[in-house]
Write a structure and sequence with these properties.
Structural class: alpha/beta
Strand order of the largest sheet: 1-2-5-7-8-9-10-11
Protein name: GTA TIM-barrel-like domain-containing protein
Pfam family, one: GH113
Order of helices and strands: HEHEEEHEEHEHEEHEHEH
Shape: globular
Largest sheet: 8 strands, parallel, barrel
InterPro entries: GH (IPR017853), GH113 (IPR055151)
Radius of gyration: 23 Å
Mean pLDDT: 92
CATH topology: TIM Barrel
Organism: Algoriphagus ratkowskyi
Length: 346
């Protein structure tokens, strides 16, 4: 009996040691959060003049049930702390004025379309990801301006009961100042009762440290999917699968669902190589509706199916349907058919 007991004890000890060793090498991971919703959206372009009524009907016909509206603040230089904005109705674009935002929200709500208010900073000669101050004093001033800017729109969103607010977009060099951003978010919470999100660039979202203070992890999902000139669907899906672990690591850490606050592809043959490149820089590139549509399908066949996916907003959608070539909009192209197919499934 003693020998049997000794062997059992020895075996148990070995199993415990083996289990602990495996745990040290492969620690247990928390479950991935499951989103409670999955919004099917587009990034709505503010129109020059008032809507006529049928514009939202055309969007609803695609199966979309969400849109983002984008008013602007302006900054003259990436190193200048001054920021200006105008919520008034004397703006060039009716759709970006307070009146236009309210009218678009009311009209879309009647069609069962959820709204996200997503103010952007327009930076002359650059993009918001390069905003960076040269001194601590300028940083303090910039955040003072920015807090005033976003709070103005937070108050608007609360007044109109817009259900979601994006507190910042692609401000990559500012988000390293975690404490300042937490103060901005806390100030927004004081005046706004809806859901809030930050839209981090695909190169930025892993470094943001304040996701816990928000309701979602927001990603501007312009991930490069391939380096090939003529990728097939399998190539593009592989590109997504390479990026998925990066997203899931952040989801596990913060236990927040993900929303792709922007994603889009131009109708050119190189759409999947550097999706963020602006159409004006692709004028000499061969057009391809097929490639744009293939990029949409790759997204729907991969990231869209994940449990943590709370919604997507495709860049971009014109109320009047007009567009240039090349352009990001799927309207009137094969990509719209792909979007409608998958949006109509659920």
């Amino acid at each position: 009996m003693k020998k049997i007991w000794s062997r059992s004890y020895l075996l148990s000890s070995v199993l415990v040691i083996l289990t602990l060793s495996l745990w040290a090498v492969f620690p247990l991971q928390p479950d991935l959060v499951k989103a409670k919703e999955k919004w099917k959206g587009v990034c709505w372009v503010g129109s020059r003049s008032p809507l006529l009524g049928q514009e939202l009907e055309a969007l609803k016909a695609t199966g979309a049930d969400a849109l983002s509206q984008t008013p602007f603040g302006w900054q003259s230089d990436k190193n200048s702390p001054e920021l200006c904005w105008n919520r008034g109705d004397d703006m060039k674009w009716w759709g970006e004025s307070s009146q236009g935002i309210k009218a678009t929200f009311d009209s879309s709500a009647r069609h069962g379309i959820m709204n996200m208010l997503k103010p952007h900073i327009w930076l002359r000669g650059s993009w918001p990801g390069e905003i960076e101050m040269r001194s601590e004093k300028d940083w303090e001033l910039w955040f003072e301006y920015y807090r005033g800017f976003i709070l103005d729109y937070a108050v608007m969103a609360e007044e109109h009961q817009i259900p979601m607010l994006c507190v910042g977009t692609e401000l990559e060099l500012t988000t390293k100042r975690e404490s300042d951003w937490r103060k901005v978010i806390a100030a927004v919470r004081e005046v706004y009762s809806g859901k809030i999100i930050y839209a981090a660039n695909f190169t930025e979202f892993e470094h943001v440290k304040f996701w816990d203070a928000l309701d979602y992890i927001g990603i501007q999902a312009y991930f490069p999917l391939t380096t090939k000139e003529n990728p097939n669907l399998s190539d593009l899906k592989s590109g997504w699968k390479k990026n998925m672990p990066r997203i899931e690591k952040v989801v596990r850490t913060y236990q927040k669902p993900v929303m792709f606050t922007e994603i889009g592809y131009v109708n050119t043959v190189d759409a999947a190589v550097e999706p963020w490149v602006w159409p004006s820089e692709r004028r000499e590139t061969k057009l391809s509706e097929d490639m744009q549509a293939l990029c949409y399908e790759a997204f729907f066949e991969t990231a869209w199916k994940e449990s943590w996916m709370a919604g997507v907003f495709f860049w971009k959608w014109y109320p009047d349907g007009k567009h240039r070539d090349p352009d990001f909009t799927p309207q009137g192209k094969k990509a719209e058919q792909v979007m409608q197919k998958y949006f109509s499934m659920d």
